[in-house]
Design a protein that fits this description.
340 residues, alpha+beta, 5-stranded mixed β-sheet
């Protein structure tokens, strides 16, 4: 069962700086949710999601600060992310940087998933906001995308090359202040897309970063792991954490061992935790596969063999048997019923 959800106050300093520059009375703003600066600056301070959302709505709706996300995002440089940023600076390659984000982004941006794909000689970073809606969704997305772009541009490769952002895509309509999206530093902007993404050439993916210090990386990642463990303990049940991993791209092909490793657990501990919550890894994997199977089957030109591969089945026959167990029909008959 999901516990009371809260957010770290890690970036509140940047939010407050933007508000002060806009003439907002910060103390009064915080007091509207029974908060004060002393509480926000305490070690490991957190704010409930309800309070955070209420504070952001006041800024965006009551003060008319529509481009608030842009203003905050422009302030977020790699040096502002603490141990997270230190670990990024000391990754061996850009691929390691992206894998690190995939694993640890929740310690800085809860409710946002980070993934990347290789598509037609490009790297496509995909972001999914699992909580915020409408104006809050747009503001949070803007801040995150600019922070990621700033991170990409701050990376120093051994060959002194710099990343060029080919496109930035967003799952909402073009805002009236679109001229301020120059902060995205992208050659092309796309709106009303299926998912938010940032795209650049895959030629950078395996390039080595300059001035990497393995000792600093190991210290930073150890602290990030500890922070992630605390986040998972306070915000998610083990069942939630496992299912979130299975919902990521290629999550349906993850094994029990791989999931346990990503959650920093032994297989035995993971099994016992799920058992205590009345479920199992096998049950969660089957649920995820059964849901994803329907979506994949409806994609044009997606064969049953392709779907079986995407879901991690060794052959199409095994997938057909599993599908009939879930829905009482073969994949082909199920498709006929839907199209009919």
């Amino acid at each position: 069962m999901r516990k009371h959800l809260s957010l770290p106050t890690y970036y509140f300093g940047h939010v407050i700086a933007v508000l002060k520059s806009a003439g907002v009375q910060v103390d009064k703003w915080l007091a509207s949710q029974d908060l004060n600066m002393d509480e926000l600056t305490e070690l490991d301070a957190r704010v409930s999601v309800e309070r955070f959302d209420a504070l952001m709505k006041v800024v965006i709706e009551n003060h008319g600060f529509e481009d608030f996300g842009i203003s905050v995002g422009k302030r977020l440089e790699l040096a502002h992310h603490g141990d997270f940023g230190l670990a990024v600076l000391n990754c061996a390659s850009l691929k390691d940087v992206l894998d690190f984000h995939n694993q640890f982004i929740s310690i800085r941006l809860p409710f946002v998933s980070f993934d990347y794909k290789l598509v037609n000689a490009t790297v496509k970073i995909e972001l999914q906001d699992k909580h915020w809606q409408m104006s809050l969704h747009r503001s949070v997305t803007e801040a995150i995308c600019i922070a990621i772009v700033n991170m990409l541009h701050s990376i120093n490769f051994q060959d002194a090359s710099k990343i060029e952002i080919l496109s930035a895509s967003f799952d909402y309509s073009k805002p009236s202040y679109v001229a301020k999206y120059e902060a995205m530093k992208a050659k092309e902007l796309k709106f009303e897309q299926a998912i938010c993404s940032i795209t650049f050439s895959d030629k950078y993916l395996q390039r080595a970063l300059a001035m990497v210090d393995e000792f600093s990386f190991q210290r930073a990642i150890a602290r990030c792991k500890k922070e992630l463990e605390g986040y998972q303990q306070h915000t998610h049940s083990t069942k939630d954490a496992v299912y979130s991993l299975l919902c990521m791209d290629q999550g349906c092909t993850l094994s029990l061992e791989q999931v346990a490793e990503r959650l920093f657990m032994s297989k035995r501990t993971l099994h016992r935790s799920l058992e205590a919550e009345g479920t199992s890894f096998k049950a969660l994997l089957q649920k995820r596969r059964s849901d994803e199977a329907k979506r994949l089957l409806l994609i044009e030109n997606m064969s049953i063999s392709n779907v079986a591969d995407e879901l991690g089945y060794s052959d199409a026959a095994n997938f057909r048997r599993a599908f009939k167990t879930w829905y009482g029909l073969s994949p082909r008959d199920w498709l006929k019923s839907k199209r009919g």
